[in-house]
Design goal:
Keywords: Membrane, Transmembrane, Transmembrane helix
Number of domains: 2
InterPro entries: CmpB_TMEM229
Pfam family, one: ABC_trans_CmpB
Distance between the termini: 55 Å
Largest sheet: none
Radius of gyration: 22 Å
Protein name: ABC transporter permease
Length: 249
């Protein structure tokens, strides 16, 4: 039993690393964006891929039809992504990713495109990857697997703690910066009303000042915060949930 548990823990990190490769390297190359660490953690792992892959591997059998694994696996993965998005927004008061601009999305947390990708990944994991991985991993002894699983988990927990601590009060600091941006915009409007300069000239001046302020603000952040803001640009586009609710009242 301990051997199977250790084997599944190891596969969790393999899937998490594969997810990091997909998010940080393959997707940017396909969309012609800059390669970057797109994960929440500092290390090369995206845990949601590990949880999703292990979950569908445990829930579905390789003997099931491709269509069944595709639909059910995609649904389970989308549920995991939706819950993760909701939980992180509750914790940090901000939306970490937003699919509102994509077709057939659900509250901007999951979308049809993700459903299809997760479905394909589920079929590949359940039908091909997981049976092969378990067969290869189970060839190693119990002690070896326990040591590897323990080492990987220790590194994972340390990374998680470091990341969470470094992001304490991140939402408040982001709010302060966004308020500065709004104040600069209002100043621009006032200058337009009182100045003989053209709107385009004032806009150029505002952009120069705003971009300079932004880069200075980014420079003052910790390395972890800078990486997070680059990996999750949606953080800069959403006000705190409480402020949104107050504005609707």
């Amino acid at each position: 039993m301990e051997k199977y548990i250790s084997a599944y823990i190891v596969t969790f990190y393999i899937y998490g690393f594969a997810g990091w490769i997909w998010e940080s390297l393959i997707c940017p190359i396909m969309t012609r964006h800059r390669i970057k660490n797109s994960g929440f953690l500092n290390g090369p792992i995206v845990p949601i891929y590990g949880f999703g892959a292990i979950t569908v591997s445990l829930l579905f059998s390789a003997n099931e039809s491709y269509l069944s694994v595709f639909i059910e696996g995609a649904f389970v993965a989308c549920v995991i992504e939706y819950i993760t998005s909701w939980a992180m927004e509750k914790l940090y008061h901000r939306r970490w990713w937003d699919y509102s601009d994509k077709a057939f999305h659900v509250n901007g947390r999951v979308c049809l495109e993700g459903f299809l990708v997760f479905g394909v990944f589920s079929v590949v994991a359940v039908k091909f990857v997981q049976p092969y991985l378990l067969e290869k991993i189970m060839q190693h002894g119990l002690i070896t697997l326990v040591v590897i699983a323990t080492m990987l988990t220790t590194i994972f927990i340390i990374d998680l703690i470091f990341t969470v601590v470094s992001l304490t009060h991140l939402d408040e600091r982001l709010d302060e910066f966004m308020k500065d941006i709004e104040s600069s915009m209002q100043k621009l409007i006032d200058d337009v009303e009182q100045s003989k300069h053209s709107f385009n000239e004032l806009m150029d001046l505002w952009k120069e000042n705003d971009i300079s302020s932004y880069h200075q603000w980014i420079h003052d952040k910790s390395m972890s915060e800078r990486r997070i803001m680059k990996a999750f640009p949606a953080l800069m586009n959403h006000q705190r949930k409480e402020e949104k609710q107050d504005g609707k009242k």
